[in-house]
Amino acid sequence: MKYSEFAYIHTIGCQMNVYDSEKLMAILSSLGYEKTDDIHKADMVVCNTCSIRHKAQEKAFSFLGRLTKLKKTKPELIGVMAGCVAQQEGEKAFERIPHLDIVLGTRAFSRFARHIEAVKSGRQKVTDTADSSVIYEVMPETLGFDENQISRFVTIMQGCENFCTYCVVPYVRGTERSREPENIIEEITAMAASGVKEVTLLGQNVNSYGKKEGKISFPRLLEKINQIQGIQRIRFATSHPKDLSMDLICAIRDMDKVCNHLHLPVQSGSNAILKKMNRGYTRETYLKRIIDLKTQCPDIGLSTDMIVGFPSETRQDFEDTMNLLGEIEYDSIFAFAYSDRSSAPAAKFSDQIDEEIKRKRLNELLERQDYYSRKNNEKLTGKTVDVLVEGASAKKRDGFEAENKNIKQMSGRTQSNKIVHFPSENASIGDIIKIKIENAYLHSLWGTPAEIGEK
Ligand code: SAH
Ligand code: SF4
Ligand code: F3S
């Protein structure tokens, strides 16, 4: 069945959801749907949802609440809740959003077309939260490449079996499954052919890629991707600290396209809390991995995730987390206040922390990190770095372009994932150019092309 209609997709949540939304759009395109950025034009509205924290989940419900109004003017509109909240809520989603037509769980993509057909033919509602051990693959050429999109996400594995006690992911994404290396390579090769220069490989724990099924290991997969012509940079997330191997550290050190950056979520600096979180490492073993990493890759960019206010976290536990910032001096951190997820075990732990204390600790942590972020950025002043040009700077220096008519203010990233703004006459999106850093700020750097006149 081919439809000639418009689809609007709203994505909440992690990078994996961004990739999944591209897959959903590929499915819809194959059915004849055209993508629109105007929700009022849409015949199909999809919200791809995230359930990692309460706030993310509520954003999904609030967005889908718009269906009531939209359906008043267009009753035949199809409303879809996809992803992690859909998987978690199932039928219950209809109670809060009566105008929803399809609840599409995280492993139901292969049946999406069939569900649309069912809704269209009989206007019946469909819920699909069935499990599936098979990863749904779409043909790479249907993924819809935009020529200015030089950086893309590629999910290489789904699910998680680590069961950190605060986390909903194992319950909503299911057991760990790795994609076939051939499918990943084929997809990235197609991306490279369409002009993509950088790929970020995604998995909840990329270090365990292929282990369960006896496929090639993650570092061997990186080796293959490193050989794909046209791809200039390879990033990946997330690495679980308990599984970070010397093999992977050497891959970062030795493979030219693998970026000199690692996101290594620590969550807490307190051993008592790490144990209750079921993270499988201690502060000491984590620090040892960081030392190994810095020894092999001295200029590596480091980032992490942290949770404050996990049940029973004392002031001392929190201080341990604060001190870890000083010991490691990360380039950036993502920090969150612990959020109760009813399917995760920590929701039943005693000694839940007061919301006000969580908020204060979060602010304290972020403030302390600002110092290290700025300090690391300042270390780069006077140095020349390779920058992959991503586009025109979203934030312009006051009056800059007005004074210099032929010069555009562009931005891009260093291998270590720092944003650099620079003036240029001739840099194009996708170029890698040398920039001499002149100023360092909290979240970005400013520099000028090292060889003026050259790209
Ligand atoms: N697989 C990745 C994390 C995915 S979720 C890993 O293990 O690192 C992204 C981040 O969200 C986590 O690292 C954690 O810091 C945060 N997070 C997960 N569950 C949370 C919760 N219940 N409350 C607050 N933050 C949470
Ligand atoms: Fe969640 Fe832990 Fe799995 Fe990451 S490793 S997705 S935090 S259970
Ligand atoms: Fe959210 Fe699901 Fe990703 S819960 S963080 S969208 S895996």
Search tags:
Transcription Regulator spoIIAA; 455 residues; binds FE3-S4 cluster; 15 helices; Rossmann fold; binds iron/sulfur cluster; six-stranded parallel sheet; binds S-adenosyl-L-homocysteine
Report on the structure:
- The chain has about 450 residues and is an alpha/beta fold.
- The protein folds into 4 domains: about 5-130, Rossmann fold, CATH 3.40.50.12160; about 150-260, Transcription Regulator spoIIAA, CATH 3.30.750.210; about 265-380, Transcription Regulator spoIIAA; about 385-450, Beta Barrel (OB fold (Dihydrolipoamide Acetyltransferase, E2P)), CATH 2.40.50.
- The chain contains 15 helices and 19 strands.
- It has helices at about 15-30, 55-65, 65-75, 85-90, 95, 110-120, 170-175, 180-195, 220-225, 245-255, 270-275, 285-295, 315-330, 355-380, 400-405, and strands at about 5-10, 35, 45-50, 80-85, 100-105, 125-130, 150-155, 155-160, 175-180, 200, 235, 260-265, 300-310, 330-335, 385-390, 410-415, 420-425, 430-440, 445-450.
- It has a 6-stranded parallel beta sheet with strand order 2-1-3-4-5-6, sandwiched between helices. A 5-stranded mixed β-barrel has the order 15-16-17-19-18.
- Strand 16 and strand 17 form a beta hairpin.
- Helix 13 packs parallel to helix 14.
- The mean pLDDT is about 95.
- Bound molecules: S-adenosyl-L-homocysteine, iron/sulfur cluster and FE3-S4 cluster.
- The site of FE3-S4 cluster has 13 residues, from helix 1 and helix 7.
